[in-house]
Write a structure and sequence with these properties.
The chain has three domains: about 160 residues, NAD(P)-binding Rossmann-like Domain (Rossmann fold), CATH 3.40.50; about 120 residues, no CATH class; about 50 residues, no CATH class. It is about 50% helix and about 15% strand. The protein is built from 17 helices and 14 strands. A six-stranded parallel beta sheet has the order 3-2-1-4-5-6, sandwiched between helices. The protein has a three-stranded antiparallel beta sheet with strand order 7-8-9. A hairpin with a 2-residue loop joins strand 13 and strand 14. Helix 5 packs parallel to helix 6.
């Protein structure tokens, strides 16, 4: 049975869900799960959970934990990276926020500097794998996804794939807008992580785009009764209508996988002024982020209390983001064929995006591995929007690997949102502040 290594296991909710997803599959219950983290206390809590749930349900799953990454990689078949490094994105946003940039996640100045912290470490993991477990797969969850995967594909030889649930999640939201069962929805989407377009959306063979256009027809902004973003405490997903996606449908003809929580980072149309921010109800997403942060803290406190009390953890078969990695492993191990949207190297898959960049495309996954599907040309307007962000990613990846501050600055200079909001002098000053903030991670840079 396989050995599954989770690097970043101190991220307890995430690791807890991966562990639960593994043992939900009878075919994977005899696996070895090796937990790795640099924080011993957090690592021990995750290991305590893993050992408890395995014992409570009488499974033979072997649980290991160590702070020695290379030791954990011995005999590994799958390595899941779910790590964060340094002070974190929110601290960086305090700097960019002073310049009027509302947020960055996987692109923009904070995305570039988050990649600067993560890419060297994940490449170290990849190079360790080349020596210790060269046939293992690296399954990456860490953001910024596209830049990390680009660096892995360009500068290492291991087999790897990037995982993100947004394609599935956003299609689910569209089904809720139309009040139709998600299990009856078909979608075909392609692009880059957090910014792909649904090229096809169908329900029982009917074009969902026609249904969505009917829902949002009329002059001006859509202002129906389900306007705005809300949080469902039971299901933990967004409900309500995302006005950014309505605008994308009206102006570009397609909806995206990013939703209002990501798309404003990639495009200059939605957050350049307070009026635009209010018009597209993006304050809803800010409130949601605060709510979700508090929710995670509450879940973690409850989790620690449950461990201390001897609580029996149930095996609940429900959708979680972590199931994507475990479904890949299950398909590799059993031959079960699945179609999943995954982040892979662009080897002519999307013909009007840069060769070698990271694209998020439909893939067939089975015992033979990951088989990306050919997409061809994206609609030209969609490709133009995405390519502008791919150019940022290329400059950032090259600059980080070559330790070249100038290329990293140029990545920020060409960022579609940043360049519409700041002057060159402002961008230079802000980038200098970000380099000062990350002084521990730019040693040896030229």
């Amino acid at each position: 049975m396989p050995k599954i290594v989770i690097i970043g296991a101190g991220s307890r909710n995430f690791a807890k869900n991966i562990i639960t997803d593994v043992i939900l599959y009878p075919e994977l219950r005899d696996s070895t799960i090796a937990l790795v983290d640099i924080d011993q206390a957090r690592l021990d809590l995750t290991a305590d959970f893993a050992k408890a749930i395995v014992k409570q349900h009488g499974f033979n799953t072997k649980v290991e934990s160590t702070m020695n990454r290379r030791e954990a990689l011995k005999g590994a078949d799958y390595v899941i990276t779910t790590i964060a490094i340094g002070k974190g994105r929110l601290d960086g946003e305090k700097i960019t926020g002073n310049y009027g940039l509302p947020w960055d996640d996987t692109v923009g100045p904070c995305g570039v500097f988050e990649a600067n912290r993560l890419i060297p470490v994940i490449l170290d993991i990849a190079h360790d794998m080349e020596k210790i477990c060269p046939d293992a797969w690296l399954l990456n969850y860490s953001n910024p996804m596209a830049m990390i995967c680009w660096a892995i594909n360009k500068y290492s030889h291991i087999k790897s794939v990037g995982l993100c649930p947004n394609q599935r999640n956003q299609a689910f939201h569209y089904s809720t807008w139309l009040n139709i069962p998600f299990e009856e929805v078909y979608y075909w989407s392609a692009g880059i992580n957090h910014f792909s377009f649904y090229l096809e959306l169908k329900w029982r063979g009917k074009d969902m785009y026609q249904m969505l256009r009917e829902k949002f027809k009329g002059p001006g902004d859509y202002a129906g009764p389900d306007l705005g973003v809300k949080h469902d405490d039971e299901k933990n997903y967004l409900v309500g209508v995302d006005l950014v996606e309505v605008e994308m449908l009206k102006r570009f003809g397609y909806m995206t996988t990013g939703s209002g929580g990501h798309i404003p980072e990639y495009l200059p149309y939605f957050v350049r002024t307070p009026e635009l921010f209010k018009r597209f109800r993006l304050d809803d997403f800010v409130e949601l982020a605060k709510h979700m942060g508090a929710r995670r803290m509450a879940e973690e406190a409850r989790y620690i209390e449950q461990l201390a009390s001897g609580y029996k953890f149930p095996l609940v078969d429900e959708y979680r983001w972590t199931i994507w990695a475990v479904n890949v492993i299950h398909s590799f191990e059993t031959g079960t064929v699945r179609k999943m949207n995954l982040n892979v190297k662009n080897t002519g898959l999307i013909t009007n995006l840069t060769p070698g960049c990271t694209v998020e495309v439909p893939c067939l996954v089975d015992k033979g591995g990951v088989h990306p599907c050919y997409v061809g040309d994206l609609p030209p307007q969609c490709a133009a929007l995405i390519q502008a962000n791919v150019d940022v990613q290329r400059l950032a990846v090259n600059g980080i690997y070559e330790k070249d501050k100038n290329q990293m600055f140029q990545a920020i200079l060409v960022d579609p949102l940043t360049r519409t909001m700041l002057s060159i002098d402002q961008m230079s000053k802000m980038t200098g502040e970000l380099f000062d903030w990350e002084k521990d991670y730019v040693k040896g840079y030229k």
